[in-house]
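Its record is quoted verbatim for completeness.
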Amino acid sequence: MIALFGNKLSPNVTVIEITFLSLQIKKIRFQGDISEWDFSIGYASVIRVSETEFRNYTVSYHNKENGVFDIIFHIHGNGVGSKFIESLKVSDELFISPPRGKKLYEQNEQRQFFFGDETSLGVAFAILPLLKKNNHQFQFYFELDEENKSVPELLELENYTVFAKNNSFRNEKWLNTLPLFQTQEWNKSNFALVGNAKSVQIFRKVLKDKKQGNIYSQGYWLEGKKGL
């Protein structure tokens, strides 16, 4: 982290607004100098969550003119990241890096498919305006816990299907029965798979076996692994 950001690890943004979309989903608005930041879809920002630890999160909304941006957090478990985000309150100051990383959106493909879970809702919210502006045909699939299944509606997402988080997306046989694979129209599409690393891995395998479209994937977390 020192190699990446040098002496720029001091607080650089301020919490100005907090909204709970569910007991586990917390949307926080930050303010700071973001005039030089690159908000490409799929890029993530590093947040300092302790003296020695950092976590990656994706920006869901930004307005450079006003110097504000939102991040939608999934607070679960007792990890240092969840504890830190849960503790944040209005007026707190913290370090958040400019976004960087792996792009998930290819605008030249007419059809766009997005898969994720609670950790992916921010990316879905960020990409929706682009999908509509560029007249894409698009579909969102989310695997969510019961207490979070209404969050896509609260975020005013469109063309989405919510599935129970019951390990179905780790079952190749079940995946092959999805409506997505029962038609030829999605054969040439852009597939963005993010969220739980195991679900992403198996979904990606099914797509690759079918030689179906362009696949962009990023595991955000995995059970039993810290700091993914």
The first strand starts at residue 13 and ends at 20.
